[in-house]
Write the structure tokens for this entry.
Amino acid sequence: MLEELVQKIEDIAKKLDISKLESQKVELENKTQATGFWDDSQTAQNISQQLSNITKTLEDIEKIRQELSSLQEIQLFLKHQEDSELQKELENNLKNIIKKIDTLEIKTYLSGKYDSRDAILSIHSGQGGTEAMDWASMLQRMYMRLCERQSWKYEVLDTIVGDEAGIKSVTLKIHGENIYGYLKHESGAHRLVRLSPFNANKLRQTSFAKVEVIPALDDLSDITINPVDIEFTAYRAGGHGGQNVNKVSTAVRIVHKPSGLVATCQTERSQEQNRANAMQILAGELWKIEEERRRNEERGIKGENTIAGWGMQIRSYVLHPYKMVKDLRSRWETSQTTEFLDGDMDECLNFNLKTL
């Protein structure tokens, strides 16, 4: 067992290319020490986050190596002398280190160009009226609870509340290590089957909501957006909030005329900040369209590129007549629906990373 784990951590180190990571660490450290590093706070924060992520990965690998070396010494001792307490300690430490290695192994599946970025996650209610709006709010809570469990930070960029219950749509920006990589497979239609809480007869109801996940492109040079193609509107934000909300036109709406894409943001900040967030959302959506076009060309698929729609559900959440959450692409499933909807999604997210 120990020998296999030693080999596994070395294989992981090879896949992560730690020599390259060490070089990147030195390069980023030099940038942080340069004069005027904090003049551009956004860029400085991004570089600091990259440095922190790389440093943690290198430290985790080295720590696991040291722990495995210590366990090998214990194992060698136990070959010559029996010690039940030490044997129990060895077994417990093995379980813990296996978890650490499994967590580190997930990073080897996060090699996409933007996998290390923050993510912008949007939820839109679909077919089902009030039911669907309530379902969209349940999904919002699920992803927020996931963030809390993972110690990821998030902020709500935009919300449109439902007429009677729930939400019509919400946009979250989620910050952390490899967030886009972890969440990119959540994009698609999510279906809920349950007894309706809005129907006096408690009939079974099917509702849909669409989740979209795009990388947070802090460097908008990755996507070319012609200022002439942008239609900008400022308006007063709705809902509850700080003293500027409903008094000053801080909320923004950006329309990309060639594609018809619309990005809005109405957080309790300045118009400039909201505009920057909306442009980031727009850049991510344009990148998504371009990425889909490129993939279609690689597969030899012809036809007009379209924005992701309701065509195919990726996951079903059944609460009646039985309980099951099933991912229809990877075939992963669980009967622990309450836990899953409370943000306990690690197993599914990791399984999808390995299989999709």
